[in-house]
Amino acid sequence: MSLTSILGAPAKNAYLMGRFTLHRFVRCEATAGDATAISWQNMSNVVSIDIDEPTWDFEADIYHAGGGNEKRHIRSGPRWNGIITVLGGKVGDTLRLLQNVTWDDSTQAVLSPRMDKDDPEIIIESVCRDHDNGTHLFTRVIQDAILDDMGDALGLDYADKQIPFHTYHEWFLLATSAEMVYHVWSATPSTATYTISNSTPLSLLTATSHDDWAFDNMVFCKVKDNSASDSIGKRVTAGVSLTAASLVFTTGTPAATDQVYCLFAK
Amino acid sequence: MSVRMNNLIDDVQQCLVELLQAQTTAPWDRWTKILGYPETERFSEPGVSLIYVLAPVILDDQKIGHAGGGLARAEIEVKIGAWTYRKEGGPGELDLITSRLQSLFRNPTVHALTFTVTLDSEYADTTLFTQGISVVKCIGPYPVATEEKKEHRSEIKLTLLV
Hints:
The complex is a heterodimer.
Chain A: E1 22-27, E2 41-42, E3 46-51, E4 55-62, E5 72-87, H1 91-99, E6 122-129, E7 136-147, E8 160-167, E9 172-174, E10 180-186, E11 193-195, E12 220-224, E13 234-235, E14 240-242, E15 246-249, E16 259-265
Antiparallel strand pairs in A: 1-2, 1-6, 3-5, 4-5, 5-8, 6-7, 7-8, 7-9, 10-16, 11-15, 12-13, 12-16, 14-15
Chain B: H1 8-21, E1 31-35, H2 39-44, E2 49-53, E3 57-64, E4 73-85, H3 90-106, E5 115-118, E6 122-126, E7 134-144, E8 151-161
Parallel strand pairs in B: 1-2
Antiparallel strand pairs in B: 2-4, 3-4, 4-8, 5-6, 7-8
């Protein structure tokens, strides 16, 4: 490598065309499939799904006496805002799909643009493929997205519509060939072991090096305590592990009526 | 293998011709697919509708480059034409050919269709994707004037990334 090195042409997979990307999702509150993983649902009519860099509830540069001008930047409370852009005529269908409601003239005729809850609703996988639609490049995962209040615009001709969302947990990129697996179990009292559908959960990252990650091979494990009016479940950060074939609790074994959620990759 | 950058014009043209020749189901089997301007074939092979692939033209030679890079990937345009005679179906057949061309190239599955082509060596059952050719756009058809009233010509324009 010299100062005058000239690189070759970019590889053919160096450019990414969004029209070859498959967007799909699962609902966080999917009906328990127990040992069967939740099926991802394809999203039709999507133009793009974009997510911004985070904003922080609190950010500061701190010094301490005797430390001179050396400072440390601290921050907490991240929030990522995003937009799902949909072909205008299908915004209702997409919203209905994401919210898992029946929207018709006999069941529920209105889709409200107000999103009053702040509960995690969907996990989105955007499977980026090369232009043969068959070569997987990578996947972008947006976890625990919460739909936001919607505005609307009706242009004269072609009109996209935007469904805003936010999440308090980071989005991430998944390597070639890897895909997410989402399990929901109805807890059985005193049962500490929950079978997963895949025997080879991938090693994701070194959790001790990353905030908001508690396990090397799980994005999260949540337990929802229905008896305590818990509406979204709490992320468990210790006392559970994902092994080759099952999720095993060593402490905090879920009680009856609890729901257990686990997101990992295969 | 991707098409050879130092033989870009010819390699891309060859790949497209072979791709079209690999389409052998009806009605594709009614049409002769050739490389380059077809005047000689047109008049030596009466009774056959032609699909011809003209030489690519580079529209943007720096379409996808990277810092510190040499050769960039280019955006190129290729005209693919249809030429028929009234006895071969006339305007109806012409429209059928250009419609089939459009549906072939507008569908992303075109990148996975197999064909065999000889460039620096023979590539059996290769694809546009394997050859590094990406179809961006397919527009037209644009009518082309002919000297003979009973002849009908029309061309589509393909935009490719190579």
